[in-house]
Amino acid sequence: MAKRVHTVRDSVERGRALDTGELLEAAIRRAGGRNFAERSFVAPLRRLVASCNEEGDLNGFGQRAARFEILRSLNNLLQLERRERAEPSLCSRPIERPIFITGMPRSGTTFLHRLLSRDPRVAAPLSWQLVYPYPSPAGRAGTLLRKAWVQGQFYAMRRLAPELDSLHHVAPGEPEECTDITAQVFQSLRYDSVYRVPSYQSWLQDYGHLEAYRFHRRFLRHLDAQAPGRRWILKSPDHVFALEDIARVYPDARWVFIHRDPVAVLASVAKLTEVLRRPFTHHVDLEEIGRQVCAAWLDGAGRMMRAAARSDAILHLRYREIVASPHEAAQRVLRHGGLAASEEGVRRMRKWLGNRTNRKHRPHEYHMERFGLDPRMLRERFASYTDTFGVELEWQADRAVRARA
Length: 405
Fold this sequence. Notes:
Elements: H1 8-13, H2 20-30, H3 42-55, H4 60-86, E1 99-103, H5 109-116, E2 122-123, H6 127-131, H7 140-160, H8 164-167, H9 179-182, H10 190-194, H11 198-207, H12 210-226, E3 231-235, H13 243-249, E4 254-259, H14 262-277, H15 286-310, E5 315-318, H16 319-324, H17 326-336, H18 343-355, E6 364-367, H19 375-381, H20 383-389, E7 400-403
Parallel strand pairs: 1-3, 1-4, 2-3, 4-5
Antiparallel strand pairs: 6-7
Helix pairs in contact: 2-4, 3-11, 5-17, 12-13, 14-15
């Protein structure tokens, strides 16, 4: 099937193209006419909009979804500015010794992060807070309505992409990845997972992530002021691609790398990317996705190896260790961050593990040839990574890779 490509002019004539100026004006109107005091996000936004228009091949729903997401981020930026004018001390609030969990995707990082968040001493950005950084001014009832609205959005996405829930379950009250924070200044690798935006992705790789993580710290300051006194634990595989920039923003950060067999990982990442993109576009090129995830994680594996060679202060965990003994893995992370075990934290984590009905998932079957991926070639290309970190190999020499997502 030939790929359908629409020019910006075609989209404009159909009334569907995203327009940066119009989006900014709409956000300002909603805020009562108050303009943005800080506008460094505008250039990245223009890059993202141009890539969506010219390369995304967005369908009508995709256009509306992208517009909705961009306006939500702009609204949040204006709200943060309002809060900072009212409370200038927010701008200098310290975020001390955060713990960053990163590494190979689809390696148990979400499970581990959610387990750690049960400890009352731990702070983690919750899904609903990434949509609404502050509770509703209408009080508890208004905040509950906001959470219900976020849950409704998740439900709609599950209807559009029924496979998504088994690949990556999301819930308003659970921690979510930091890519949703940096997306609010339009400098996030999450966009490439949801939309086909190769020129934006290339630009971001060259531009770097320093501004994005400065905003990341700014965003955390707002959340931290609402419930102070906890240690932040942040999670995203994409932190791998910004290690040096994160270290400049958070020089006292603690690091945890999670490792897993890249052959199993790439099959799962490619499938998740397909599932995320399909509702928003006219066409999904599976082999292009395969090439993209392979190139990205060859780069990511190299970055982890170089970081490990420079520092022996990184805690390395393997997927099998997390699966076999999640509580011990969580305690190792806390000890690495300088947090002693507490009775309450242990009790809550054990209760969560005991109550989880979906702790044991059925293995998913991923047919790698659909994405143009050759497991034997991948095994060779990632050999340095698997040898360096002693990663257990999961792939079996048949047509499909079975892996726990």
